[in-house]
Amino acid sequence: MRGRPRDPDLPARVLDAALAEYARSGWAGFTMHAVAGRAGVGKSSMYLRWPTKEQLLVDAIDAYTRPLVVDHDTGSLRGDVLALASSLLAHFLDPMGWVTVRIAVDAAVESVDLGGFHERIVTKHNDAAQRIVDRAIGRGELPAGVDGRPLLEGLFGGVLLHTLALPPSEHAAARTDLAAHVTPLVDLLLRGVGPAATPAVG
């Protein structure tokens, strides 16, 4: 006797439901039972793929933040950083984007033990920033040896604070012109990174 066919939409439904449930309940009220009910799936189906709620949350963050590590090779350091900053702003302007930030903060202060969070999420974003820097070094825009992590940290923090400072009434307008909102921050950060080293003469 053949079993029920697999539901191809189940993973996406569960991951969306996990973020929505975390937004409503936080870590204290986050349960697999609540996620299953919100997603309209059986808990047994969820446990086959996600044995723990920690693994489910890491997968949800990974899926939702994946567009932030898309490799935008625009041909210049400024263009690459502007593309990343615009993606970050769009992410923070999305209510579910704020949920991923909330989970990351909870994990950072250790009130939530998300095994694999640093390796799968933080390292991936650091690597994406370093690729931008490495391309700039290859083009001669930056000196060799520049670390991409401070650039990513400054960009992430700056865009996050900019989003916090935006009145909700301005969010819709910001979504239509992301680059205009992040350009001043990007230019400030790039001045701090420094110009390419000048070759010695003689």
UniProtKB/TrEMBL annotation:
One of its GO terms (molecular function) is DNA-binding transcription factor activity. Keywords: DNA-binding, Transcription, Transcription regulation. Residues 31-50 bind DNA. It comes from the Bacteria. InterPro entries: Homeodomain-like_sf (IPR009057), HTH-type_TetR-like_transc_reg (IPR050109), HTH_TetR (IPR001647), Tet_transcr_reg_TetR-rel_C_sf (IPR036271), TetR_C (IPR011075). Pfam families: TetR_C_11, TetR_N. Residues 8-68 form the HTH tetR-type domain. The keyword Cytoplasm does not apply. This is TetR-family transcriptional regulator. It comes from Frankia alni (strain DSM 45986 / CECT 9034 / ACN14a).
